[in-house]
Amino acid sequence: MHDLGRPSPPVTDTARAHAPRSPAGAGDPEALMRALFRRLDDELRHAERAAAELVRGRPGGDSPVLVETVTGREAQGHRILGLETGARHTFQAFLTGLNTTTPVPNTLASLPESGPDEERPPWRSAPPEVNYQLLVDRDFLAEPAAVAALEERVARGEQVRVVDHALLKLAVADGEVAMVQVDPERSVLLRPPLTVLVTELFAAAWRHARPYLREVAELTPVDRQILQLMVSGLTDAATAKQLGTSPRTVQRKVRALMDLASVTSRLQLGWYAMRNNWI
After folding, report:
1. Is the pLDDT of residue 230 over 50?
2. CATH code of residue 233
3. In what order do the strands lie in the sheet with 186-190?
4. SS (H, E, C) 115-126
5. CB atoms within 10 A of CB 71
6. Contact predicate 138/233, CB 8 Å
7. Residue 52 CA to its chain's centroid (Å)
């Protein structure tokens, strides 16, 4: 057995307090956005490197097993679902595209106990008192059934946020057990104190993500869905496919939203929508 070695220090709020000051011209919205994304990228890369160093280790002697490898997609899927259903207080997860381990219907929607999908095991979510925080990326929003499944989650009062960069797949239950996917065929389970690295990584990404589908009186649910998908980078054709409509209808609605916001480009519309809590 090999020793785990010395872990790298986790990213802390104290360290973040010493982030470099905004450059000259910080009043410019584009400069502010670039600075924000650079800082977030630095935080995520630091936490990912620290986690990668730790998961390569192995406990030795009589030390408790802090790292466990889960091999195979079916085994990974069962462990992730087990983390969710076993959570008592909190469940946090990155949900990313190309979700071959736990496809969207299994990850986000309640499965019927009988019927055409009878071969799949019945699915149940965590108890109602569990606080959910789900962070999704652009590729996830493009998956079949993603929008409908996320709407079901939001309707149940769960917190959902969106980022535009690709996420790794991870889940954390109660801050005590974390699962991080290393590659499509392999994940690692981490236990305290190693879970602090994953919770720090999640917290950094969560702080800089935007809420999914905020309620705004002037907008219809379809308007908000179109804005959400547009800002995430989906094409009109991909958006239309998600919403069961035509690209021409999407384009017409985007034009109407641009008129409502008094802007002349989609980039300006996205910026206006985020600044005014339309999404």
Report:
1. yes
2. 1.10.10.10
3. 67-71, 186-190, 177-183, 170-173, 90-95, 131-136, 159-162, 210-211
4. CCCCCCCCCCCC
5. 10
6. yes
7. 19
pLDDT of residue 217: 66
Predicted pLDDT of residue 278:
85
Length in residues, the chain: 279
Tell me: the pLDDT tens digits for 53-75? Answer: 555 554 444 556 688 999 998 89
Tokens of 92: 């946090």
Q: 109 or 241: which carries more pLDDT confidence?
A: 241
188 & 105 share domain: yes
Report d(CA 159, CA 165) in Å as an integer: 19
Determine contact, residues 103/180, Cβ cutoff 8 Å. no
Q: Distance between CA 158 and CA 27 in Å, rounded?
A: 34
DSSP state of 10: P
Residues 184 and 267 in one domain: no
Residues 6+ apart with CB under 8 A from 173: 83, 84, 86, 87, 90, 91
Residue 78 lies in a domain: yes
Whether 228 and 181 map to the same domain: the answer is no
Q: State the CATH number of the domain containing residue 193.
A: 3.30.870.10
58 in any annotated domain: no
Domain that includes residue 158, residue range? 67-208
The answer on 192 and 82 residing in a single domain is yes
| 16 is a domain residue | no
Specify the pTM: 0.60
In a domain, 131, yes or no: yes
